[in-house]
Amino acid sequence: MDWILNYIKNVVLFLLVMTVVLNLCPKTEFEKYVRMFAGFLLLLLVMQPLLKLGGQESFFEISPDGIELETVDLQKTSDELERKMIERLEGNYEAE
């Protein structure tokens, strides 16, 4: 019974946030894209309980371990690029 209350709170909160965002947005040609994106998000939010019943709840979850692993990979790549850049700069400096 608790999940129904949380589900309703999520939908109402989403609608309130989107109402505020749409009211803050100037009336331009981009409003239709914001509305379309909000509609897709609302559709996913409404479908979430149905997907949980079907065993597809992992579609909406983000694993903290996955984010941590990705962060470590990005840090390694960044360190490697920085090292290569320093080597090239040193090589250019020595060539002069």
- Rg calculated over all Cα atoms: 23 Å
Number of helices: 3
Instruction: Please tell me the overall pLDDT.
Output: 77
* Element pattern in H and E: HHH
- Give the proportion of residues in helices: over 70%
Structural class: mainly alpha
Query: How far apart are the first and last residues' alpha carbons, in Å?
Result: 74 Å
Describe the biggest sheet?
none
Strand runs, count:
0
Indicate the proportion of strand residues.
under 5%
Global geometry: elongated
Q: Which residue ranges are poorly predicted, with pLDDT under 50 across at least 5 consecutive positions?
A: none
Describe the fold and architecture.
The chain is mainly alpha-helical. Helices cover 81% and strands 0% of the residues. The longest helix is centred in the last third of the chain and has 32 residues, at 64-95. The protein starts with a helix and ends with a helix. The mean pLDDT is 77.
Structure in a nutshell:
The protein has 96 residues and is mostly helical. It contains 3 helices and no strands. The radius of gyration is 23 Å and the shape is elongated.
